[in-house]
Amino acid sequence: MRLIGLLMGTVATALLVVPAIPGAAEEIIAGEILIEANALHPEELMTEPEHRVLFTNRSGHSVHIQFTMKNPNGEQHHIVQVPEQIWAIFHKMGRHPFVVHFLDRTMPDLYGAVEVVGDPYGRPDPLVCNGITVMGACLER
Questions:
Q1: Which residue(s) pair with 80 in the sheet?
Q2: Residue 54 in domain
């Protein structure tokens, strides 16, 4: 009887601990950088590969984002800049530094970075096929 009580107490403790983990993952996955007239919030953002990072311009001025890392083959990230919306999707892990340039040259440039990390829970990389690949499609996992 004592063993059953001990096991139930252990299970109850485990259930109390588990809900805190998904919140941490959402902070990493859901990425937004706020651009203000004199600062970025946050200056550095962590995300996972293939997740969208949104750049929200609250400065009141037109901006352009330039990634400063060397990108010889064009596969590091894709950035979309249209009026009112700027977002990027990062394909490679690592640090992706960027500069926010204001079209009003009297405004100072702002510097930040996006750190692309692997899955915090250690799941396999969804971009790696563990089976056979035919014409870009993974047939077995």
A1: 87
A2: yes
pLDDT for 15-49, tens place per residue?
Answer: 333 333 344 444 455 589 999 999 999 999 998 88
CA distance linking residue 28 with residue 115, whole number of Å: 10
* pTM flag (> 0.90): no
What's the pLDDT score for residue 51? 85
Bridge partners of residue 128, in order along the sequence: none
- Domains contained in the chain, number: 1
Helices assigned H by DSSP within the chain: 2-17, 20-29
CATH number of the domain enclosing 62:
2.60.40.420
For the cut 80, the answer to whether the pLDDT of residue 103 exceeds it is yes
Longest CA–CA span in the chain (Å) reads 75
User: How far from the centroid of its chain's Cα atoms is residue 121's Cα?
Assistant: 15
Q: Are strands 63-67 and 137-138 parallel, antiparallel or unpaired?
A: unpaired
Structure tokens at 127: 């971009």
